[in-house]
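EI: anyone free to look at a 314-residue chain?
SC: sure, send it
EI:
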Amino acid sequence: MFSSTDCLVLDRSAGSSVVDLIGRTPLVRLHRFERETPGVELYAKAEWQNPGGSVKDRAAARMILEGEASGALTHGRTILDATSGNTGIAYATIGAARGYAVTLCVPENASAERKLILRALGATLVFTSPLEGTDGAIREARRMHASDPDRYFYPDQYNNDGNWRAHYDTTGPEIIEQTSGRLTHFVAGLGTSGTFMGTGRRLRAFNPGIKLISVQPDGPMHGLEGLKHMESAIVPGIYDPSLADEDLRIDTESAYVMVRRLAREEGLLGGISSGAALAATLIVARRLRAGVVVTVFPDGAEKYLSEPFWHVDV
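SC: here you go
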């Protein structure tokens, strides 16, 4: 029988726009994986339930609304930013709903599904070298904005405090409420670092005893879309490494294995960064005799279904 602890969610009331549908995502219990972590409860925020399909909807909405409030974003200006895909989809989703053109600098090796979704939403794509990853996209966005600052509204998600504050004000409080304040550990990946920084700060303010564990790729050459290897990348201005109690490194193949297991054992189609988060969550949980470990699954698998790693047996 279904239990209220299987999928904890704040009620979503009917919204008048896409922005009203962002947040209040389910916290799903990972029962099958808990068999490997006796005494430890495992939960994940299913962020693909946001209208744009990822956790990035939260930050994008905050940055766009703050741009409007400050007067930096007005109709006639184009939203411009660098993205590996998910924030771009969020910009394009919200931009379409609010009447803004959107131009995105994207690494050319972004998944085919992400490119199709972005084009379907009307975004203009500027492709950058796949060898430079998101760093190349950042450099191109900076160049474009500097060359025509009056044309573009450049939120700069990697250096905009609205990014992490969106999670301080929404993701963190949701997790506290959904776990009745019982969580002991929080695990999240580092891309822009907004999810980890904002949620982690809110959880620490609630209970300084909660352990905060960040997750990043184990090296500069990796296949974990959306995550950054900080030592070899342009470090986001909003990132503060001192917040984490521990920083775990996950290899690409381990993330792929967890994505496949998540689908076949829990019936949850998560994305590649969700697989990395799950791999790290299990590392943390296996050390414990008791605890409540919460992670964030940033997006779903629909943007990665053409990837060959699906065709390998678990």
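EI: The first strand starts at residue 7 and ends at 8.
SC: 👍
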